[in-house]
Each structure stands twice: as C-alpha cells, then as structure tokens.
C-alpha cells in the first residue's frame, strides 16, 4: 500500500466557486432558521390563518435574507479553500441542533467569517453586513424573550 499526497485533481469534488458555496449555506441557514417558526405557526393556527400571518415570520427578516443572499451571489469569484470547507462542515453541524436560535447564530457566524475572508469584495462585505445586521438583530430579542418567559413561568 503506497501513500501519496492529495493533489488538486483529487479535490475535484470541492471545485466549487466560493460564492456559490456561501450562497448555498446561507439559503440552508435561513430556511432552517425559519422552519421552526413556520412549524409552530402551523400548529397554533389553521394553515390559512398561518399563511395570512406570513407564518409568524418577520417581513424584515425575509427581506434582509433575500437581499443578503442576492448580494452574496454577486460576490467576487474565488477558489474554495480548505478552511472554507471546514467552516461549512462546522456550520452544518451547528444547524443540525433542533433549535432555530442556533441556526441564526450559525448563520451570523458564517456571514462574519465570509466578511473577514472576502473583505476586498464589496458585495461579500455587503452581504455579510446585511445578514449579520438584520437577521441577528431580530433573533436575539426572541432569545431574550424566551429566556425571560422560561424564568417567569
């Protein structure tokens, strides 16, 4: 059995543009973060009432997610590095926790990482800023309220 080093051709599976990887992770994070609220809305209300109430999803959060993902799609083309793949795996592990708050934290950390690594690209910085600023601004309040309600109850 001979040992050999991995060459770039061995990593063809990971030959994905970095901005595409980040967009896919952002979409998964947003959907995962919103899924719990939608599920709860469907259990508390009829499907029609839930739909009319937009499944208890803040419209600002939806708009921020759409703008952030759109900006991320326009980000500069770069090659995906091994650290990007490690961050993607860590992100995937974080969003498997069955709590939407953890998904929002994971999404915010991913956006911060993307901003730090892509600070020379205005679209990357703008996408990260929108996702960190608007998505995390709305969600810690929910976290804080749930902690207060648990303490009072």
Protein model, in words:
This protein has 153 residues and is mainly alpha-helical. The protein has one domain. The chain is 73% helix and 0% strand. The chain is built from six helices and no strands. The protein has helices at 18-44, 47-52, 59-73, 82-95, 100-117, 122-152. The protein is elongated and about 45 Å long. The chain starts with 17 loop residues before the first helix and ends with a helix. The model is unreliable at 140-153 (pLDDT under 50).
Indicate the mean pLDDT. 80
| Oligomeric assembly | single chain
What's the helix-strand series? HHHHHH
Unreliable residue runs: 140-153
Total number of distinct structural domains: 1
Choose one word for the global shape.
elongated
Number of helices: 6
Major β-sheet profile = none
Name the helicity range. over 70%
User: What structural class do you assign from the helix and strand content?
Assistant: mainly alpha
Number of strands: 0
- Compute the CA-based radius of gyration: 18 Å
Distance between the termini: 63 Å
Beta-strand level of the residues, as a percent range?
under 5%
List the helices and strands and how they pair.
Layout: H1 18-44, H2 47-52, H3 59-73, H4 82-95, H5 100-117, H6 122-152
């Amino acid at each position: 059995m001979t040992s050999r080093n991995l060459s770039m051709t061995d990593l063809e599976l990971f030959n994905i543009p970095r901005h595409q990887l980040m967009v896919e992770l952002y979409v998964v994070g947003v959907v995962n973060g919103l899924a719990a609220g939608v599920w709860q809305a469907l259990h508390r209300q009829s499907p029609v009432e839930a739909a009319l109430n937009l499944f208890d999803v803040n419209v600002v959060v939806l708009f921020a997610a759409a703008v952030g993902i759109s900006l991320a799609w326009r980000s500069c083309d770069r090659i995906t590095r091994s650290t990007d793949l490690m961050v993607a795996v860590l992100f995937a592990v974080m969003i498997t926790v069955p709590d939407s708050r953890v998904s929002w934290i994971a999404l915010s950390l991913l956006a911060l990482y993307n901003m730090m690594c892509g600070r020379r690209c205005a679209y990357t910085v703008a996408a990260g800023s929108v996702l960190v600023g608007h998505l995390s601004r709305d969600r810690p309040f929910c976290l804080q309220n749930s902690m207060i309600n648990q303490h009072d109850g």
